[in-house]
Amino acid sequence: MSLGLGSDLAIDLGTANTCVFALGRGVVISEPSLIAFHVSTGAIEAVGEAARDMLGRTPGHLRPVRPIRDGVIADFDAAEKMLTHFIRKTRQHVGGWTRPRVVIGIPAEITPVERRAVKDSAYRAKASEVFLVDEPMAAAVGAGLPIADAAGNMIIDVGGGTTDIAVISLAGVVIGRSVRVAGDAFDQAITNHLKRRHEVLIGERTAEAIKLQIGSATALEKPLTMEVKGRHFAKGVPVRVTVTDAEIREAVSEPLNTILKAIRETLDQIPPELSADIYDRGIALCGGGALLRNLDRRIKQETQLPVKVVDQPLSAVVVGAGKMLADKALLRKLAVN
């Protein structure tokens, strides 16, 4: 296996965002996992950021599609076309090579059928070889954790569709758990809250903006408010309402509690020797969901363990997969093909 500079890619095919890492160049693409088709012709109208800009504003002849749902491929044709687009776009960034070798991060608990679907989509998108790696392992490598040590390292990756929790030792996942509740569930909870309490309908982009601007996992020192524009559920007219950080915190409490429960259950299964290591080393937190205010503090309250958000939490998985591209022995050891 020859891994040449600039010829190979690492891809984090996420529910919310797709990141592409080119060997020797770093992260060259980070865009929404979204593609828009023309309803009549089936032609691709937009991909990534361009498709996101259309969300909630698409005319009848355009159909936006999220190919990845809950961390797995839900629309094979759309996933293949989106992957092909991102690979071609990467080629424009880094030069004129063709069929790249590709390393793709996948959720820890996806089924063999789902795993096969990811590989097939990458091959149809013109990859020459495809290697799959567990996202928690890739995130741990990207975060710089000493995964090869004979000691426990715990990482939590809160993505768009899944939250992956893993305890790693000797370059292997000792305990891995994946729950299909993450950032998208927070957005949906906020949407439901606005409809139920304020009778206001909002779109995906507005829900995400509320989460990022005033969302939090614990009470804030300085309360925040935000003016939200939407459509009145009963009257059908545009309206604006003011929401507070406290009510958004209440809105996201259910999906957040599901994640916290999964973390506690994972900790309950850890062998005593590794528990001592994690008590000393703490928990590493990454993924887009890690950007929710005070999520690290809330996990610390629940577990009584130190929690640290890794540097560049959004790109930890793809950077880790990229590091494997440059280390043949590590890639062979960690690939889950």
Provide a compact summary of the structure.
This protein is of the alpha+beta class and 337 residues long. It has twelve helices and 18 strands.
Descriptors:
337 residues, Nucleotidyltransferase, domain 5, flat, 2 domains, alpha+beta
Structure write-up:
With 337 residues, the protein is an alpha+beta fold. The protein has 2 domains: 8-137 and 316-334, Nucleotidyltransferase, domain 5 (2-Layer Sandwich); 148-309, ATPase, nucleotide binding domain (Nucleotidyltransferase, domain 5). Helix content is 39%, strand content 27%. The chain contains 12 helices and 18 strands. It has helices at residues 49-54, 76-94, 112-124, 135-142, 183-198, 204-214, 245-251, 253-268, 272-281, 295-303, 316-325, 328-334; strands at residues 8-13, 17-22, 26-32, 35-38, 44-47, 62-65, 68-69, 72-73, 101-106, 129-134, 153-158, 163-169, 172-179, 200-201, 225-232, 238-244, 283-286, 307-309. The strands form 5 sheets. A 5-stranded mixed β-sheet has the order 3-2-1-9-10, sandwiched between helices. Residues 1-6 have low confidence and may be disordered.
